[in-house]
């Protein structure tokens, strides 16, 4: 007898040694008419061989493939004498003998074995001495007599040889994916020379669909160690095994047999019906049973894993410890997570993949293409089912391979289910693709560890459907209701598949950086189908362009270390994670779960909406302590790197940018850590990465020289501007000067100019909008200032070639164009914002405009994000009756587009009341390199109102006044004109002075050293105090000195208000 093959390399448990399909095979009698005699596929629509009526096939293709062997036995099956001998054993011998005699090369063809040797059936030595036994001799004479009755010419020596072959060389079992036990037997050439051992180092892994089977290592196998299998069942005692081995003329010499290591094993309770008697359950029984399994089957063995033991576990067990101990065994044999042979560092790409199939969520239908998942407002429906949306014909063609199988079902009564049930939709696409695309389930995919696997190769646990049996029955009932032809066993298998293999969420990349990316669909990625779970994963999936995803290392991974991901959200506590993992029948054994490392973590404050409430911190030490706690908790929850951790770090960085309570060295360290996390967990073109870089790098402009109050930083004219509707006909639409002799545009009658020169200068912009003002549906446009202003911007961008790309030199030396300014996309999930956008679209449609929806959205975002500067004017004669100047127009000034906001600004705009120019002046001493800031909201409003208005710009102010609420005691109501200084309500001089000092203190808190609005308040105060007997001379002198300085700082030298004030107040007399 030949020695068992050996390999020259060491093997680990689960390593595939070889894979083979049978030369010949037969189905047992009781499974005839249920399984195809050629491909072993179960079917309820098998067709008989029309001649012998003994063979069953699922298709003509299978009948043709099997005819090579069946034609030699077909006429014999029709003979009356054979009917009593047609058991599977005789049919196996008959097919083997007839194939050897009638197919010329059948017995002599060489087959390459996995150890490199070549062997044929004739080369295999057999022991003909088996016929010395009376029972075997009688069987030989029965066969010879039957051949005589059938008229088969035979050679006695040949019959003896091949009957001995069948007795010496075991035929291996064939199994169905949902049938316990074997349904047939086959001759596998690759395994004919393997030797037996009752302590085998390898075992067969059956393909649940088809005839192929793998030979895998069940324990570590050293180089050149003999490969052994067992040819008799291991769940029998030694005496029964030895008796069974006599039929193969074998005597086992393994340690278990020689030293009788299993003498204390109770084999009777390994019988499926007696494996686990729940009614007598105790902990000792459980421990003994596990020990017996180790002795009988060794470290790993399919029978140990997939035996009835798994199926008899009851939910009523008093403890889950038994399942916990059994789970590692199941996972190690059934689904071993891939490993790599090289060392990995954080950020290294392990693999990249596209989904085999994918489906869009119901709420995303009509917004994203069902094929490429790109967002579009011009999607086209499938004209047949009206359920699928595509961005172009190319996408529709690419998806038709899968959609053609499901399209007719949308026309039946399934529309209501498929339009709302996301899980059902992708399962149905999977099931129909398997049934209708020939190679869909059998196509091999090369995984990143070098192994090849198909959907059929993936072992599924049908027991997981037990808890979801109602789901299975519902699907079957639905199919029956619509008269859909289906195979219950196939439905059950692919339902089990969906409970075994995780679906990967596909997220949209058009959301704001401060929002969690939203899942818009899911897909089945072959590369990730065999990955194991851990709540401390060493890798994570990185969303790429479209449907592509990368698997990247999140920490250093050693050679041979298992690659793991997290199948559940990590921002949940242990109980919630364990509950979610029950869906996959997984019990996580990572350190975080076993030792409950996250027991002290408050997961609620790691939510974006609860992260860093800056308004509750008064001191820097409080904020620093809180920050350190949060960073420590993030390390425990997510590990060294993780995409979700990176999103939170970016949000923290943006919230804390320029916060005076955080030391600069710590912020630099924080930023460096975040940038490293971005490199590890985000792709280069990820919009979140771009937005963070913008927020962290696009600081407000700085100067290299110190400034004093009143110093001019820069002066600018607007790029575009419009006059507000209420001041139309009073001010020129080009130069913004007041005039009583303005002339209208003769075409639209909407624009007013003080002369032809102004009309010619404005025509560059007005010619694009003039036809729209003449449109019959232009009523809303004429009355809506914001729409007019945005429309002028949008039309200028679209019709003036260099308008959006022209570079403007800023006062800090940098250059910027309108296109260079990064803006955040509009959040269309916000109802109010969505209505505003829809209103713009409706108006454009009403005006019969041709437009690009993406451009419209971009410039709407630009318009909302970028600060609009108001253009002021007023009547010098009314300065003391009006608290502030009139806002007559608005414009975009290039110099001021990149300025940062602060409610304690160090600069302010100084308006030319006779034109459009605006100066930016320092309002307090500014050090070299200090950031230049302005206020984007009125400073005369309280903190709550300012914060509400800043949300429009996605800004959270972190100045001292907002963070520490320095203005909490300010009475903002009395800063209004009508209640500014009610002198008639003050009885005596003491109360008067107390009120005055409090008012001046409030103005200092609200406006700082200098501000144009503060100067206006002070001018009004002087007017009110003129001639008041209760005010002392020293106070008046103090106010006078300050006011003259404030006028110099906050007014232009030629401002008529300045001259009018100095002349009319007669300060010297005061």
Describe the protein's architecture and organization.
It is built from 33 helices and 36 strands. With 1070 residues, the protein is of the alpha+beta class. It folds into seven domains: 113 residues, Beta-clip-like (Beta Complex), CATH 2.170.270; 164 residues, no CATH class; 95 residues, SET domain (Beta-clip-like), CATH 2.170.270.10; 169 residues, no CATH class; 64 residues, no CATH class; 263 residues, no CATH class; 39 residues. Helix 12 crosses helix 14, helix 20 runs parallel beside helix 22 and helix 23 packs across helix 25. The longest helix has 19 residues. It is elongated. 29% of the residues are buried.
In short:
This protein has 1070 residues and is of the alpha+beta class.
Tell me the layout of helices and strands.
Layout: E1 16-20, E2 24-27, E3 47-48, E4 56-57, H1 60-70, H2 74-77, H3 88-102, E5 111-112, E6 118-119, H4 134-150, H5 156-168, E7 172-176, E8 179-187, E9 195-196, E10 202-206, E11 213-217, E12 228-229, H6 238-245, H7 255-258, H8 283-297, H9 302-306, H10 308-311, H11 321-334, E13 349-353, E14 357-360, E15 380-381, E16 389-390, H12 393-410, H13 415-418, H14 422-436, E17 445-446, E18 452-453, H15 469-481, H16 488-498, E19 504-507, E20 519-524, E21 532-533, E22 539-543, E23 549-553, E24 564-565, H17 574-581, H18 591-594, H19 620-638, H20 643-656, H21 664-681, H22 687-697, E25 712-716, E26 720-723, E27 743-744, E28 752-753, H23 756-773, H24 779-783, H25 785-799, E29 808-809, E30 815-816, H26 831-846, H27 853-865, E31 869-873, E32 886-892, E33 900-901, E34 907-911, E35 918-922, E36 933-934, H28 943-950, H29 960-963, H30 989-1007, H31 1012-1025, H32 1033-1050, H33 1056-1065
Parallel strand pairs: 9-12, 21-24, 33-36
Antiparallel strand pairs: 1-11, 2-8, 3-4, 5-6, 7-8, 10-11, 13-23, 14-20, 15-16, 17-18, 19-20, 22-23, 25-35, 26-32, 27-28, 29-30, 31-32, 34-35
Helix pairs in contact: 12-14, 20-21, 20-22, 23-25, 31-32
């Amino acid at each position: 007898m030949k020695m068992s093959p050996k390999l020259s390399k060491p093997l680990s448990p689960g390593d595939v040694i070889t894979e083979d399909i049978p030369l010949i095979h037969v189905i047992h009698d009781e499974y005839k008419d249920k399984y195809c005699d050629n491909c072993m596929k179960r079917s309820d629509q098998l067709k008989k061989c029309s001649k012998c009526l003994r063979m069953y096939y699922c298709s003509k293709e299978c009948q043709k493939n099997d005819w090579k062997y069946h034609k030699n036995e077909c006429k014999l099956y029709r003979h009356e004498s054979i009917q009593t001998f047609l058991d599977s054993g005789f049919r196996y011998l008959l097919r083997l003998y007839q194939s050897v005699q009638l197919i010329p090369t059948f017995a002599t063809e060489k087959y390459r074995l996995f150890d490199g040797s070549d062997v044929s059936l004739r080369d295999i030595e057999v022991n003909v001495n088996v016929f010395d036994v009376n029972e075997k001799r009688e069987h030989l004479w029965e066969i010879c007599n039957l051949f005589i009755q059938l008229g088969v010419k035979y050679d006695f020596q040949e019959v003896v040889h091949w009957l001995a072959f069948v007795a010496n060389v075991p035929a291996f079992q064939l199994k169905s994916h949902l049938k316990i036990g074997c349904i047939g037997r086959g001759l596998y050439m690759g395994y004919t020379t393997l030797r037996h051992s009752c302590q085998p180092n390898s075992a067969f892994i059956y393909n649940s669909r088809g005839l192929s089977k793998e030979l895998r290592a069940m324990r570590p196998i050293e180089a050149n160690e003999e490969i052994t299998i067992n040819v008799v069942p291991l769940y029998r005692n030694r005496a029964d095994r030895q008796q069974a081995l006599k039929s193969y003329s074998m005597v086992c010499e393994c340690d278990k047999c020689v030293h009788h290591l299993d003498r204390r094993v109770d084999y009777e309770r390994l019988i499926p019906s007696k494996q686990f008697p729940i009614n007598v359950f105790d902990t000792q029984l459980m421990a003994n049973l596990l020990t017996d399994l180790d002795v009988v089957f060794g470290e790993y063995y399919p029978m140990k894993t997939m035996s009835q033991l798994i199926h008899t576990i009851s939910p009523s067990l008093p403890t889950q410890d038994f399942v916990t101990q059994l789970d590692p065994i199941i996972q190690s044999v059934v689904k071993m997570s891939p490993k790599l042979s090289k060392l990995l560092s954080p950020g290294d790409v392990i693999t990249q993949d596209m989904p085999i199939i994918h489906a869009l969520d119901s709420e995303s239908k009509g917004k994203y293409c069902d094929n490429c998942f790109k967002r579009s407002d011009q999607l086209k429906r499938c004209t047949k089912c009206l359920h699928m949306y595509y961005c172009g014909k190319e996408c529709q063609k690419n998806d038709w391979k899968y959609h053609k199988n499901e399209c007719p079902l949308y026309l039946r009564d399934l529309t209501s289910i498929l339009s709302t049930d996301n899980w059902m939709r992708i399962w149905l696409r999977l099931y129909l693709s398997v049934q209708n695309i020939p190679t869909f389930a059998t196509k091999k995919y090369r995984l990143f560890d070098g192994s090849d696997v198909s959907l059929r190769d993936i072992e599924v646990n049908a027991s997981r459907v037990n808890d979801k049996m109602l789901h299975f029955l519902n699907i079957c009932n639905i199919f029956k209701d619509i008269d859909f032809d289906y195979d219950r066993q196939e439905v059950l298998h692919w339902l089990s598949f969906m409970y075994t293999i995780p679906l990967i969420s596909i997220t949209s990349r058009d959301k704001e950086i401060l929002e969690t990316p939203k899942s818009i669909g899911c897909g089945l990625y072959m590369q990730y189908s065999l990955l194991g779970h851990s709540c401390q994963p060493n890798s994570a999936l990185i969303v790429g362009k479209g449907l592509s995803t990368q698997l990247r290392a999140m920490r250093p991974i050693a050679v041979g270390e298992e690659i793991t991901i997290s199948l559940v959200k990590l921002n949940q506590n242990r109980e919630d994670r364990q509950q979610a993992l029950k869906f996959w029948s997984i019990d996580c054994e990572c350190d975080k779960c076993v030792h409950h490392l996250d027991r002290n973590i408050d997961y609620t404050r790691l939510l974006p909406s609860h992260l860093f409430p800056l308004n509750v911190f008064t001191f820097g030490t409080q904020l620093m302590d809180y920050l350190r706690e949060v960073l420590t908790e993030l390390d425990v929850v997510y590990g060294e790197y993780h995409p979700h951790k990176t999103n939170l770090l970016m949000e923290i960085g943006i919230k804390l940018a320029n916060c005076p309570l955080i030391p600069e060295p710590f912020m630099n360290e924080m930023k460096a850590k975040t940038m490293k996390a971005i490199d590890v967990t985000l792709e280069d073109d990820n919009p979140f990465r771009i937005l963070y870089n913008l927020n962290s790098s696009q600081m407000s402009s700085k100067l290299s020289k110190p400034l004093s109050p009143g110093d001019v930083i820069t002066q600018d004219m607007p790029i575009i501007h419009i006059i507000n509707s209420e001041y139309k006909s009073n001010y020129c639409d080009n130069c913004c000067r007041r005039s009583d002799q303005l002339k209208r545009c003769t075409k639209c009658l909407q624009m007013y100019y003080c002369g032809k020169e102004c009309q010619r200068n404005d025509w560059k912009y007005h010619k694009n909008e003039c036809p729209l003002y003449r449109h019959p549906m232009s009523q809303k446009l004429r009355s809506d200032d914001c729409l007019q202003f945005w429309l002028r911007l949008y039309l200028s961008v679209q019709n003036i070639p260099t308008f959006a790309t022209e570079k403007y030199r800023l006062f800090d030396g940098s250059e910027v164009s309108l296109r260079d300014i990064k803006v955040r996309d509009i959040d269309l999930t916000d109802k109010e914002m969505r209505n505003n956008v829809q209103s713009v679209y409706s108006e454009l449609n009403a005006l019969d405009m041709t437009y690009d929806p993406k451009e419209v959205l971009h410039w709407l975002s630009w318009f909302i994000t970028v600060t609009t500067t108001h253009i002021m004017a007023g009547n010098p004669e009314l300065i003391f009756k009006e608290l502030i100047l009139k806002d007559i127009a608005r414009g975009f000034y290039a110099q001021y587009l990149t300025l940062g906001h602060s409610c304690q600004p160090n600069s302010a705009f100084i308006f030319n009341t006779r034109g459009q120019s605006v100066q930016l002046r320092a309002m307090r001493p500014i050090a070299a390199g200090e950031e230049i800031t302005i206020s984007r909201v009125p400073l005369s409003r309280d903190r709550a109102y300012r914060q509400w208005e800043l949300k429009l710009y996605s800004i959270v102010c972190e100045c001292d006044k907002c963070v520490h609420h320095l203005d909490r005691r300010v009475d903002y109501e009395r800063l209004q004109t009508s209640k500014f200084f009610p002198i008639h309500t003050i009885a005596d001089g003491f109360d008067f002075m107390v009120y005055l000092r409090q008012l001046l203190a409030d103005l200092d808190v609200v406006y700082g050293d200098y501000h144009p609005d503060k100067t206006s308040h002070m001018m009004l105060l002087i007017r009110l105090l003129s001639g008041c007997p209760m005010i002392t001379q020293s106070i008046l002198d103090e106010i006078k000195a300050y006011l003259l300085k404030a006028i110099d700082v906050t007014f232009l030298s030629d401002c008529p208000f300045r001259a009018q004030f100095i002349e009319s107040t007669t300060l010297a007399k005061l």
